[in-house]
Amino acid sequence: MEAIQVMTQLTPCGGPLPELEVPMITTLVRCLGSEHRKLDGLNVQLAFSATALAADPEGVASGQRLFEVWDEIRRDLWSHLQIEDGLVFGWGGAHHAISGRLLNALKVEHEEMRKSVAALPTLYSGVNGNPQTERDRAAFARTLLAFSRTFDSHVERYEGEVLPSILRAVFHKQGPPTIQ
Hints:
The protein is mainly alpha-helical and 180 residues long.
């Protein structure tokens, strides 16, 4: 019976985790901020290329650039959103770092992005998975424009409200720094 009690008192790392919590959360926040800046730059290119393709669905150069930028965004997007979900909905929710109103808005925003992305595979056809008809290319561009708008709001909200709230909660929980 004593062995069971000792085992339940140990954390997975064999030591107290709260000492690691502050640097871990601040590192995640910095990482997400860095990824937001990278993805935001790509999102501007995506919006520009999607606008050009929507205006001229026969435009080969704008279409090719749109597919290249989208592929680059798509490579990083899901893991990025998973980390955000864990940090914001998991840690942030458990520590009341984010208001219920904002958490609900973020859930809706994530769902809108997922719906936009889920609609894309049905628009892919032909060589290299790119839409081949003019109509398909225009629909693809409009779908990516909708995604781009949602993602732009997402980055703005995270950088201006969500990530600062997480940091405030981390440092509030830790307490003021002690001077020795």
